[in-house]
Structure formats: C-alpha cells, structure tokens
C-alpha cells in the first residue's frame, strides 16, 4: 500500500503502534513479527494530513493496542489537533468471517471524537464483488484472510483491493491539500 501511495505522489512514513502484548502471547496468537519501522506517538499524528491504519482483527474488533494508543490522544482531542484530518483502515482476519467490517467499525469512534474524516473504499474495487473465491475486504477497507495459523498468503485479489485503497486515499488527500492551499 505504501508503494502504491508513493506512486500516486504521496509522502509516506511507515510507523507502528506500540505493542502492549508480550512476545510469548504474540507467538501463541501466530501474530506476524513486528516490523522494523519506528513506533508512532500520538503527537506524531499532527504532522500528517491523513493516515491509513493497518491492524489485525482481535475477536472482531481493533486490537487493545489500538485502543491504548487512542486512549493516549486525549491531549490532542482537547485541542482539536486532529480535526479535519483523514483516515482509512485495512485489516487481516484469521477466517473469512472473522470481523473485517466490525474491526473497521470499532475504529470509527476514535475518528469521530477527534473530528477525523473516515474514508471508506465502498465497493468500487471489482474484486470485492467477486464470489469466485475467498477475497478479504469490504466497503470499509482492504483486508486479507490469513488463516488461524497465518498459513494463508494474501491473495492477488486482496493485494489489488489494497492498492485500490492506497490509490483512492492518496488521490483524495492530494485533492484536499491542493484545494486547501489554493
């Protein structure tokens, strides 16, 4: 997604929300290894026009680490520092019906309280209405179906949906920034 957003002319920083679970617990969950990218702080969000938040699904909702991160944004909320910024969500689930939509929905209160504009993808990506095979994703954002043990690779169609989301989000932000500075 970052590569696709950059191809649209977006400036992209890859950051990760701080982890709150131990390596032992993450191993039992078959969680992917932590990326070798810097952690984001709540204050970092003020530097960006928009954010695409990627997160796994935990019991059909955003993981506790996401909640803990947004719990730490109270000072930003009090000053309205994130009002008018944009956000989208993408996720991965262990099963086809593992809560991809509900995970996105559980992020909306964070965005609404901050005045962040949620940017869904709708069903504009044709892969989302293809019933010939299992394809993750929904109107809320791109998603992958990983299997309970992480054994299923993200499919070509799921990658296509992710690229679609990155393109559409980047183009929306570029249009907004151009209008804002005109």
UniProtKB/TrEMBL annotation:
GO molecular function: FMN binding; NAD(P)H dehydrogenase (quinone) activity
Domain Flavodoxin-like: 1-169
One GO CC term, this protein: membrane
Pfam families found in the cross-reference section: FMN_red
NCBIfam families (alphabetical): flav_wrbA, PRK03767.1
Family matches, as PANTHER family: FLAVODOXIN-RELATED PROTEIN WRBA-RELATED, FLAVOPROTEIN-LIKE PROTEIN YCP4-RELATED
Family: Belongs to the WrbA family.
Protein known as: NAD(P)H:quinone oxidoreductase, type IV
Species in which this protein is naturally found: Rhodotorula diobovata
